Amino acid sequence: MAILGNIIKGAIHLKETFSTESDHWKEQQEVLRSILNIAKNTDFGQYYNFETILNSEDFPRKFAEKIPYFDYNKINDEWWHKLHDGHENVTWPGRPSYFALSSGTTGKSSKRIPVTDDMIESIRAAGLKQVFALSNFDLPADFFEKEIMMLGSSTNLEERNEFMEGEISGISAGNIPFWFRSYYKPGEEIAKIEDWDKRVERIAERAADWDIGALSGIPSWIELMLQKVIEYHSLKNIHEIWPNLMVYTSGGVAFGPYEKSFNALMGHPITVIDTYLASEGFIACQTRPETKAMQLITDNGIYFEFVPFKPEYIREDGSLTPNAPAKALNEVELDQDYVLVISTVSGAWRYLIGDTIRFTNLEKAEIQITGRTKFFLNTVGSQLSVNKMDDAIRHLEDAYSTKIPEYTICAKRCDDGEFYHCWYLGSDMENPDCASLSNSLDEFLMEANKNYKVARSKSLKGVKVKVVSTDCFYDWNGKNKKKGGQVKMERVMNEEKFADWEKFIQSKISN
Protein backbone atom coordinates (compact mmCIF):
# COMPACT_ATOMS: atom_id res chain seq x y z
CA MET A 1 0.00 0.00 0.00
CA ALA A 2 1.31 3.47 -0.92
CA ILE A 3 1.30 4.88 2.64
CA LEU A 4 3.56 7.87 1.92
CA GLY A 5 1.76 8.50 -1.38
CA ASN A 6 -1.60 8.55 0.39
CA ILE A 7 -0.28 11.02 2.97
CA ILE A 8 1.13 13.34 0.28
CA LYS A 9 -1.98 13.07 -1.89
CA GLY A 10 -4.19 13.72 1.15
CA ALA A 11 -2.18 16.79 2.12
CA ILE A 12 -2.38 18.15 -1.42
CA HIS A 13 -6.12 17.51 -1.61
CA LEU A 14 -6.65 19.13 1.81
CA LYS A 15 -4.71 22.21 0.70
CA GLU A 16 -6.84 22.54 -2.43
CA THR A 17 -10.06 21.93 -0.51
CA PHE A 18 -9.43 24.93 1.75
CA SER A 19 -8.16 27.15 -1.07
CA THR A 20 -10.56 29.82 -2.28
CA GLU A 21 -10.98 30.97 -5.87
CA SER A 22 -8.40 33.67 -6.57
CA ASP A 23 -9.23 37.27 -7.38
CA HIS A 24 -6.49 37.53 -9.97
CA TRP A 25 -6.73 41.27 -10.58
CA LYS A 26 -6.61 41.99 -6.84
CA GLU A 27 -3.53 39.76 -6.56
CA GLN A 28 -1.90 41.60 -9.47
CA GLN A 29 -2.46 44.99 -7.86
CA GLU A 30 -0.91 43.69 -4.65
CA VAL A 31 2.10 42.34 -6.55
CA LEU A 32 2.65 45.62 -8.39
CA ARG A 33 2.35 47.67 -5.19
CA SER A 34 4.79 45.33 -3.46
CA ILE A 35 7.51 45.31 -6.13
CA LEU A 36 7.27 49.09 -6.60
CA ASN A 37 7.63 49.59 -2.85
CA ILE A 38 10.59 47.21 -2.57
CA ALA A 39 12.40 48.78 -5.54
CA LYS A 40 11.56 52.45 -4.91
CA ASN A 41 15.06 53.25 -3.57
CA THR A 42 16.97 51.51 -6.38
CA ASP A 43 18.59 53.55 -9.13
CA PHE A 44 15.72 52.62 -11.43
CA GLY A 45 13.07 53.37 -8.83
CA GLN A 46 14.58 56.78 -8.08
CA TYR A 47 14.95 57.63 -11.77
CA TYR A 48 11.31 56.86 -12.55
CA ASN A 49 10.06 58.12 -9.16
CA PHE A 50 8.27 55.00 -7.95
CA GLU A 51 7.16 56.94 -4.86
CA THR A 52 4.97 59.16 -7.06
CA ILE A 53 3.50 56.12 -8.81
CA LEU A 54 2.67 54.49 -5.46
CA ASN A 55 0.92 57.64 -4.27
CA SER A 56 -1.24 57.80 -7.37
CA GLU A 57 -4.92 56.88 -7.02
CA ASP A 58 -4.74 54.63 -10.09
CA PHE A 59 -1.17 53.42 -9.64
CA PRO A 60 -1.32 50.62 -12.29
CA ARG A 61 -2.26 53.20 -14.92
CA LYS A 62 0.36 55.67 -13.63
CA PHE A 63 2.95 52.90 -13.79
CA ALA A 64 2.10 52.23 -17.44
CA GLU A 65 2.30 55.94 -18.26
CA LYS A 66 5.65 56.67 -16.58
CA ILE A 67 7.74 53.58 -17.40
CA PRO A 68 8.66 52.85 -21.04
CA TYR A 69 8.76 49.38 -22.55
CA PHE A 70 12.08 47.54 -22.34
CA ASP A 71 13.37 44.65 -24.36
CA TYR A 72 16.58 42.91 -23.30
CA ASN A 73 18.92 45.15 -25.32
CA LYS A 74 17.38 48.36 -24.00
CA ILE A 75 17.31 47.44 -20.31
CA ASN A 76 20.76 45.85 -20.49
CA ASP A 77 22.33 48.83 -22.25
CA GLU A 78 20.75 51.35 -19.89
CA TRP A 79 20.69 49.47 -16.57
CA TRP A 80 21.71 45.84 -16.19
CA HIS A 81 25.23 46.31 -17.58
CA LYS A 82 26.04 48.18 -14.36
CA LEU A 83 25.59 44.96 -12.36
CA HIS A 84 28.57 43.41 -14.13
CA ASP A 85 30.69 46.37 -13.05
CA GLY A 86 29.95 45.72 -9.40
CA HIS A 87 27.05 48.15 -8.89
CA GLU A 88 24.25 47.31 -6.48
CA ASN A 89 20.62 48.45 -6.19
CA VAL A 90 20.34 49.00 -9.93
CA THR A 91 16.84 47.77 -10.82
CA TRP A 92 16.31 45.61 -7.70
CA PRO A 93 17.79 45.91 -4.19
CA GLY A 94 21.23 44.37 -3.75
CA ARG A 95 22.88 42.21 -6.40
CA PRO A 96 21.45 39.16 -8.18
CA SER A 97 22.64 35.74 -7.08
CA TYR A 98 22.73 34.40 -10.64
CA PHE A 99 22.45 35.36 -14.27
CA ALA A 100 20.28 33.18 -16.48
CA LEU A 101 21.82 32.67 -19.91
CA SER A 102 19.24 32.74 -22.64
CA SER A 103 19.95 32.89 -26.35
CA GLY A 104 16.33 31.79 -26.82
CA THR A 105 15.52 31.04 -30.42
CA THR A 106 16.57 34.24 -32.14
CA GLY A 107 19.51 35.80 -30.30
CA LYS A 108 23.00 35.67 -31.78
CA SER A 109 24.63 35.69 -28.35
CA SER A 110 23.49 34.79 -24.86
CA LYS A 111 21.40 37.24 -22.91
CA ARG A 112 22.35 37.54 -19.24
CA ILE A 113 19.18 37.99 -17.24
CA PRO A 114 19.44 38.71 -13.49
CA VAL A 115 18.03 36.06 -11.17
CA THR A 116 17.64 37.30 -7.59
CA ASP A 117 17.01 35.34 -4.41
CA ASP A 118 13.45 36.69 -4.54
CA MET A 119 13.03 35.17 -8.01
CA ILE A 120 14.43 31.82 -6.85
CA GLU A 121 11.82 31.82 -4.09
CA SER A 122 9.14 32.87 -6.58
CA ILE A 123 9.99 29.92 -8.85
CA ARG A 124 9.91 27.52 -5.91
CA ALA A 125 6.51 28.82 -4.82
CA ALA A 126 5.17 28.50 -8.37
CA GLY A 127 6.44 24.93 -8.51
CA LEU A 128 4.57 24.15 -5.30
CA LYS A 129 1.43 25.71 -6.79
CA GLN A 130 1.67 23.24 -9.64
CA VAL A 131 2.25 20.34 -7.26
CA PHE A 132 -0.89 21.27 -5.30
CA ALA A 133 -2.84 21.49 -8.57
CA LEU A 134 -2.09 17.80 -9.17
CA SER A 135 -5.03 17.03 -6.89
CA ASN A 136 -7.25 18.04 -9.83
CA PHE A 137 -5.80 15.34 -12.11
CA ASP A 138 -7.03 12.26 -10.21
CA LEU A 139 -3.65 10.55 -10.01
CA PRO A 140 -3.27 7.38 -7.90
CA ALA A 141 -1.62 7.67 -4.50
CA ASP A 142 1.45 5.66 -5.50
CA PHE A 143 2.29 8.28 -8.14
CA PHE A 144 3.41 10.57 -5.31
CA GLU A 145 6.09 8.06 -4.32
CA LYS A 146 7.67 7.85 -7.78
CA GLU A 147 10.74 9.69 -9.02
CA ILE A 148 10.73 12.69 -11.35
CA MET A 149 13.08 13.04 -14.31
CA MET A 150 13.88 16.73 -14.88
CA LEU A 151 15.85 17.13 -18.08
CA GLY A 152 17.17 20.66 -18.25
CA SER A 153 20.53 22.26 -18.80
CA SER A 154 23.58 21.44 -16.72
CA THR A 155 23.52 22.41 -13.04
CA ASN A 156 27.28 22.93 -13.22
CA LEU A 157 27.15 26.72 -13.43
CA GLU A 158 30.00 28.91 -14.63
CA GLU A 159 31.54 31.76 -12.66
CA ARG A 160 31.85 35.09 -14.45
CA ASN A 161 32.63 38.44 -12.82
CA GLU A 162 31.83 37.01 -9.37
CA PHE A 163 28.41 35.77 -10.55
CA MET A 164 27.24 32.24 -11.26
CA GLU A 165 25.71 31.82 -14.71
CA GLY A 166 23.70 29.10 -16.44
CA GLU A 167 20.32 28.41 -18.02
CA ILE A 168 17.28 28.89 -15.80
CA SER A 169 16.51 25.14 -15.77
CA GLY A 170 20.01 24.45 -14.42
CA ILE A 171 19.75 27.24 -11.83
CA SER A 172 16.33 25.98 -10.72
CA ALA A 173 17.47 22.35 -10.50
CA GLY A 174 20.44 23.46 -8.42
CA ASN A 175 18.07 25.13 -5.96
CA ILE A 176 15.48 22.39 -5.47
CA PRO A 177 14.24 21.99 -1.87
CA PHE A 178 16.11 19.42 0.22
CA TRP A 179 12.97 17.31 0.72
CA PHE A 180 12.60 16.92 -3.06
CA ARG A 181 16.12 15.68 -3.78
CA SER A 182 15.35 12.01 -3.15
CA TYR A 183 12.66 12.20 -5.86
CA TYR A 184 14.79 14.16 -8.35
CA LYS A 185 16.46 12.34 -11.21
CA PRO A 186 18.93 12.06 -12.90
CA GLY A 187 20.50 13.29 -9.64
CA GLU A 188 23.13 15.90 -8.95
CA GLU A 189 26.12 14.00 -10.35
CA ILE A 190 24.62 13.37 -13.80
CA ALA A 191 22.86 16.75 -13.89
CA LYS A 192 26.26 18.49 -13.67
CA ILE A 193 27.54 16.89 -16.90
CA GLU A 194 27.82 19.77 -19.38
CA ASP A 195 27.92 17.74 -22.60
CA TRP A 196 24.27 16.96 -23.36
CA ASP A 197 24.98 13.76 -25.33
CA LYS A 198 27.14 12.39 -22.51
CA ARG A 199 24.51 13.34 -19.93
CA VAL A 200 21.80 11.49 -21.88
CA GLU A 201 24.11 8.50 -22.32
CA ARG A 202 24.53 8.28 -18.54
CA ILE A 203 20.75 8.58 -18.10
CA ALA A 204 20.27 5.67 -20.50
CA GLU A 205 22.82 3.58 -18.60
CA ARG A 206 21.11 4.23 -15.25
CA ALA A 207 17.49 4.18 -16.47
CA ALA A 208 16.70 0.69 -15.11
CA ASP A 209 17.69 1.82 -11.59
CA TRP A 210 14.89 4.37 -11.40
CA ASP A 211 11.13 4.20 -10.99
CA ILE A 212 10.16 7.30 -12.97
CA GLY A 213 6.61 8.59 -12.50
CA ALA A 214 6.96 11.97 -14.18
CA LEU A 215 9.06 13.74 -16.82
CA SER A 216 9.77 17.45 -17.11
CA GLY A 217 11.50 19.35 -19.90
CA ILE A 218 11.31 20.78 -23.42
CA PRO A 219 9.55 18.27 -25.73
CA SER A 220 12.26 17.92 -28.38
CA TRP A 221 15.00 17.07 -25.88
CA ILE A 222 12.73 14.82 -23.79
CA GLU A 223 11.93 12.88 -26.97
CA LEU A 224 15.60 12.42 -27.81
CA MET A 225 16.33 11.24 -24.28
CA LEU A 226 13.47 8.73 -24.41
CA GLN A 227 14.65 7.47 -27.80
CA LYS A 228 18.14 6.97 -26.38
CA VAL A 229 16.82 4.99 -23.40
CA ILE A 230 14.62 2.85 -25.67
CA GLU A 231 17.50 2.20 -28.08
CA TYR A 232 20.04 1.46 -25.32
CA HIS A 233 17.80 -1.16 -23.70
CA SER A 234 16.27 -2.52 -26.96
CA LEU A 235 12.73 -1.63 -25.87
CA LYS A 236 9.49 -1.25 -27.79
CA ASN A 237 8.44 1.77 -25.72
CA ILE A 238 9.50 3.68 -22.62
CA HIS A 239 6.88 2.01 -20.38
CA GLU A 240 8.79 -1.27 -20.64
CA ILE A 241 11.46 0.23 -18.37
CA TRP A 242 9.41 2.91 -16.59
CA PRO A 243 6.00 1.21 -16.20
CA ASN A 244 4.77 3.79 -13.67
CA LEU A 245 5.37 6.82 -15.88
CA MET A 246 2.09 8.75 -15.67
CA VAL A 247 2.80 12.48 -16.13
CA TYR A 248 4.81 14.71 -18.44
CA THR A 249 5.09 18.43 -17.66
CA SER A 250 5.94 20.14 -20.92
CA GLY A 251 7.40 23.61 -21.28
CA GLY A 252 9.38 26.03 -23.40
CA VAL A 253 7.39 25.53 -26.60
CA ALA A 254 3.93 24.42 -27.65
CA PHE A 255 3.51 20.67 -27.19
CA GLY A 256 1.16 20.25 -30.17
CA PRO A 257 3.75 19.62 -32.92
CA TYR A 258 5.43 16.96 -30.76
CA GLU A 259 2.30 15.18 -29.56
CA LYS A 260 2.21 12.48 -32.23
CA SER A 261 5.92 11.62 -32.12
CA PHE A 262 5.91 11.78 -28.29
CA ASN A 263 2.96 9.41 -27.98
CA ALA A 264 4.68 6.95 -30.33
CA LEU A 265 7.32 6.43 -27.62
CA MET A 266 4.71 5.52 -24.98
CA GLY A 267 3.20 2.15 -24.17
CA HIS A 268 -0.03 3.81 -23.07
CA PRO A 269 -1.32 7.39 -22.75
CA ILE A 270 0.00 9.61 -19.96
CA THR A 271 -1.16 12.93 -18.56
CA VAL A 272 0.49 15.94 -20.22
CA ILE A 273 0.57 19.15 -18.18
CA ASP A 274 1.80 22.42 -19.70
CA THR A 275 4.08 24.82 -17.85
CA TYR A 276 5.50 28.22 -18.73
CA LEU A 277 8.91 28.72 -17.12
CA ALA A 278 11.01 31.39 -18.84
CA SER A 279 14.45 32.76 -18.00
CA GLU A 280 12.63 35.74 -16.51
CA GLY A 281 10.38 33.75 -14.18
CA PHE A 282 7.68 31.11 -13.75
CA ILE A 283 4.82 32.63 -15.74
CA ALA A 284 1.96 30.09 -15.72
CA CYS A 285 1.02 26.44 -15.29
CA GLN A 286 -1.88 24.18 -16.15
CA THR A 287 -4.02 23.62 -13.07
CA ARG A 288 -6.91 21.47 -14.33
CA PRO A 289 -7.28 18.57 -16.79
CA GLU A 290 -10.34 19.79 -18.69
CA THR A 291 -8.30 22.42 -20.54
CA LYS A 292 -4.87 22.66 -22.14
CA ALA A 293 -4.63 26.31 -21.10
CA MET A 294 -2.35 27.51 -18.30
CA GLN A 295 -3.24 29.77 -15.40
CA LEU A 296 -1.14 32.89 -14.96
CA ILE A 297 0.60 32.91 -11.59
CA THR A 298 -0.76 36.24 -10.46
CA ASP A 299 0.26 36.30 -6.78
CA ASN A 300 3.94 35.52 -6.96
CA GLY A 301 6.34 38.31 -7.86
CA ILE A 302 5.39 39.00 -11.49
CA TYR A 303 3.11 41.79 -12.71
CA PHE A 304 1.63 41.26 -16.16
CA GLU A 305 0.60 43.64 -18.91
CA PHE A 306 -0.72 42.82 -22.36
CA VAL A 307 -0.27 44.72 -25.63
CA PRO A 308 -2.64 43.84 -28.51
CA PHE A 309 -0.60 41.94 -31.10
CA LYS A 310 -1.18 44.11 -34.14
CA PRO A 311 1.29 45.00 -36.90
CA GLU A 312 1.09 48.73 -36.16
CA TYR A 313 2.46 48.14 -32.65
CA ILE A 314 5.31 45.75 -33.56
CA ARG A 315 8.64 46.81 -35.01
CA GLU A 316 10.54 44.57 -37.42
CA ASP A 317 12.90 43.43 -34.64
CA GLY A 318 9.94 42.33 -32.50
CA SER A 319 10.05 45.30 -30.08
CA LEU A 320 7.05 47.52 -29.34
CA THR A 321 6.41 51.02 -30.59
CA PRO A 322 6.36 53.57 -27.73
CA ASN A 323 2.66 54.32 -28.29
CA ALA A 324 1.54 50.67 -28.16
CA PRO A 325 -1.33 50.51 -25.64
CA ALA A 326 -0.95 48.17 -22.66
CA LYS A 327 -3.91 46.41 -21.06
CA ALA A 328 -3.94 45.35 -17.42
CA LEU A 329 -5.38 41.96 -16.45
CA ASN A 330 -8.82 43.47 -15.75
CA GLU A 331 -8.95 44.94 -19.27
CA VAL A 332 -8.08 41.99 -21.52
CA GLU A 333 -10.49 40.21 -23.85
CA LEU A 334 -10.93 36.72 -25.22
CA ASP A 335 -9.90 35.83 -28.79
CA GLN A 336 -7.18 38.48 -28.99
CA ASP A 337 -3.46 37.83 -29.26
CA TYR A 338 -1.36 39.90 -26.85
CA VAL A 339 2.34 40.61 -26.50
CA LEU A 340 3.27 39.66 -22.93
CA VAL A 341 4.97 42.38 -20.84
CA ILE A 342 6.23 41.63 -17.32
CA SER A 343 7.70 43.37 -14.27
CA THR A 344 9.39 41.09 -11.76
CA VAL A 345 11.21 40.57 -8.48
CA SER A 346 14.43 40.23 -10.48
CA GLY A 347 14.24 43.89 -11.55
CA ALA A 348 12.79 43.48 -15.04
CA TRP A 349 10.43 46.39 -15.68
CA ARG A 350 7.77 46.46 -18.39
CA TYR A 351 9.92 43.86 -20.07
CA LEU A 352 9.13 42.03 -23.31
CA ILE A 353 10.00 38.35 -23.10
CA GLY A 354 9.08 37.98 -26.78
CA ASP A 355 6.04 35.71 -26.41
CA THR A 356 2.47 36.25 -27.54
CA ILE A 357 -0.47 34.78 -25.65
CA ARG A 358 -4.23 34.52 -25.88
CA PHE A 359 -6.75 34.30 -23.02
CA THR A 360 -9.06 31.31 -22.98
CA ASN A 361 -10.75 32.04 -19.64
CA LEU A 362 -10.81 35.53 -18.13
CA GLU A 363 -12.18 34.60 -14.70
CA LYS A 364 -9.47 31.98 -14.17
CA ALA A 365 -6.75 34.04 -15.94
CA GLU A 366 -5.98 31.11 -18.23
CA ILE A 367 -3.87 31.55 -21.34
CA GLN A 368 -2.29 29.73 -24.24
CA ILE A 369 1.01 30.70 -25.83
CA THR A 370 0.35 31.59 -29.47
CA GLY A 371 3.86 32.39 -30.70
CA ARG A 372 6.77 34.80 -30.67
CA THR A 373 6.84 38.43 -31.72
CA LYS A 374 9.80 37.65 -34.00
CA PHE A 375 8.11 34.52 -35.34
CA PHE A 376 5.18 36.44 -36.74
CA LEU A 377 5.48 35.89 -40.47
CA ASN A 378 4.14 39.03 -42.14
CA THR A 379 6.77 39.73 -44.82
CA VAL A 380 4.15 39.67 -47.56
CA GLY A 381 1.05 40.37 -45.48
CA SER A 382 0.29 36.75 -44.60
CA GLN A 383 0.07 37.42 -40.83
CA LEU A 384 0.93 33.87 -39.78
CA SER A 385 1.54 33.27 -36.08
CA VAL A 386 3.20 30.16 -34.69
CA ASN A 387 -0.08 28.64 -33.51
CA LYS A 388 -1.42 28.83 -37.09
CA MET A 389 1.75 27.14 -38.33
CA ASP A 390 1.42 24.47 -35.64
CA ASP A 391 -2.17 23.85 -36.74
CA ALA A 392 -0.98 23.40 -40.32
CA ILE A 393 1.64 20.87 -39.21
CA ARG A 394 -0.97 18.86 -37.29
CA HIS A 395 -3.13 18.90 -40.44
CA LEU A 396 -0.26 17.41 -42.46
CA GLU A 397 0.40 14.77 -39.79
CA ASP A 398 -3.22 13.64 -39.96
CA ALA A 399 -3.50 13.88 -43.74
CA TYR A 400 -0.31 11.92 -44.42
CA SER A 401 -0.30 9.63 -41.35
CA THR A 402 3.14 10.79 -40.33
CA LYS A 403 5.00 12.60 -37.55
CA ILE A 404 6.50 16.09 -38.05
CA PRO A 405 7.96 17.20 -34.69
CA GLU A 406 10.14 19.97 -36.16
CA TYR A 407 9.83 22.60 -38.86
CA THR A 408 11.11 26.00 -39.89
CA ILE A 409 9.88 28.53 -42.44
CA CYS A 410 11.08 31.59 -44.33
CA ALA A 411 9.36 34.08 -46.63
CA LYS A 412 11.97 33.94 -49.36
CA ARG A 413 12.42 35.63 -52.72
CA CYS A 414 13.27 32.76 -55.05
CA ASP A 415 15.08 32.60 -58.40
CA ASP A 416 12.04 33.82 -60.32
CA GLY A 417 11.98 36.99 -58.20
CA GLU A 418 8.71 36.05 -56.47
CA PHE A 419 8.05 35.49 -52.77
CA TYR A 420 7.31 31.98 -51.50
CA HIS A 421 6.89 30.51 -48.06
CA CYS A 422 9.68 27.94 -47.93
CA TRP A 423 9.08 25.21 -45.35
CA TYR A 424 11.52 22.59 -44.09
CA LEU A 425 9.76 19.73 -42.33
CA GLY A 426 11.57 17.37 -39.95
CA SER A 427 10.09 13.93 -40.49
CA ASP A 428 10.97 10.29 -41.09
CA MET A 429 8.45 9.86 -43.93
CA GLU A 430 9.80 7.81 -46.83
CA ASN A 431 9.79 9.20 -50.39
CA PRO A 432 7.78 12.30 -49.49
CA ASP A 433 5.72 13.90 -52.25
CA CYS A 434 6.81 17.49 -51.67
CA ALA A 435 4.48 18.90 -54.34
CA SER A 436 1.49 17.26 -52.66
CA LEU A 437 2.64 18.43 -49.23
CA SER A 438 3.02 21.98 -50.58
CA ASN A 439 -0.50 22.01 -52.04
CA SER A 440 -2.05 20.55 -48.90
CA LEU A 441 -0.25 23.05 -46.67
CA ASP A 442 -1.19 25.96 -48.93
CA GLU A 443 -4.86 24.99 -49.11
CA PHE A 444 -5.12 24.52 -45.34
CA LEU A 445 -3.58 27.93 -44.61
CA MET A 446 -5.83 29.70 -47.13
CA GLU A 447 -8.88 28.17 -45.47
CA ALA A 448 -7.66 28.82 -41.92
CA ASN A 449 -6.30 32.36 -42.32
CA LYS A 450 -8.00 35.05 -44.39
CA ASN A 451 -4.90 37.28 -44.37
CA TYR A 452 -2.86 34.44 -45.83
CA LYS A 453 -5.50 33.93 -48.52
CA VAL A 454 -5.35 37.62 -49.45
CA ALA A 455 -1.54 37.50 -49.59
CA ARG A 456 -1.74 34.47 -51.88
CA SER A 457 -3.83 36.46 -54.33
CA LYS A 458 -1.18 39.19 -54.43
CA SER A 459 2.53 39.05 -53.61
CA LEU A 460 2.82 35.57 -52.05
CA LYS A 461 3.10 33.11 -54.92
CA GLY A 462 2.92 29.82 -53.08
CA VAL A 463 4.47 27.28 -50.77
CA LYS A 464 7.59 25.19 -51.29
CA VAL A 465 8.19 22.23 -48.99
CA LYS A 466 11.29 20.14 -48.37
CA VAL A 467 11.49 17.20 -45.98
CA VAL A 468 14.66 16.41 -44.04
CA SER A 469 15.57 14.19 -41.11
CA THR A 470 14.54 15.50 -37.71
CA ASP A 471 18.15 15.02 -36.64
CA CYS A 472 19.08 17.94 -38.92
CA PHE A 473 17.20 20.30 -36.61
CA TYR A 474 18.91 18.96 -33.49
CA ASP A 475 22.32 19.10 -35.17
CA TRP A 476 21.65 22.69 -36.27
CA ASN A 477 20.96 23.66 -32.66
CA GLY A 478 24.09 21.82 -31.57
CA LYS A 479 26.15 23.68 -34.17
CA ASN A 480 24.79 27.14 -33.40
CA LYS A 481 24.15 26.95 -29.67
CA LYS A 482 24.16 23.67 -27.80
CA LYS A 483 21.90 20.73 -27.28
CA GLY A 484 19.37 20.34 -24.51
CA GLY A 485 18.33 22.78 -21.82
CA GLN A 486 16.23 25.72 -22.95
CA VAL A 487 17.38 25.61 -26.60
CA LYS A 488 14.49 25.80 -29.07
CA MET A 489 14.36 25.70 -32.85
CA GLU A 490 13.58 28.86 -34.78
CA ARG A 491 10.15 28.46 -36.33
CA VAL A 492 10.68 31.48 -38.58
CA MET A 493 14.01 32.62 -40.06
CA ASN A 494 14.98 35.73 -41.96
CA GLU A 495 16.51 35.26 -45.39
CA GLU A 496 20.10 35.67 -44.17
CA LYS A 497 19.80 32.97 -41.52
CA PHE A 498 17.73 30.77 -43.82
CA ALA A 499 20.58 30.86 -46.36
CA ASP A 500 22.92 29.54 -43.63
CA TRP A 501 20.34 26.89 -42.75
CA GLU A 502 20.10 25.72 -46.37
CA LYS A 503 23.90 25.55 -46.67
CA PHE A 504 23.94 23.48 -43.49
CA ILE A 505 21.27 21.11 -44.82
CA GLN A 506 23.15 20.78 -48.12
CA SER A 507 26.34 19.86 -46.27
CA LYS A 508 24.42 17.20 -44.30
CA ILE A 509 23.00 15.73 -47.50
CA SER A 510 26.41 15.80 -49.24
CA ASN A 511 27.97 13.90 -46.36
UniProtKB/TrEMBL annotation:
Domain GH3 C-terminal residues, every copy: 391-496
TM ranges: none
Originating species: Arenibacter arenosicollis
Pfam families referenced in this protein's UniProt entry, alphabetically: GH3 (PF03321), GH3_C (PF23572), GH3_M (PF23571)
Domain GH3 middle per the UniProt entry, residue ranges: 297-363
Protein's name according to its UniProt entry: GH3 auxin-responsive promoter family protein
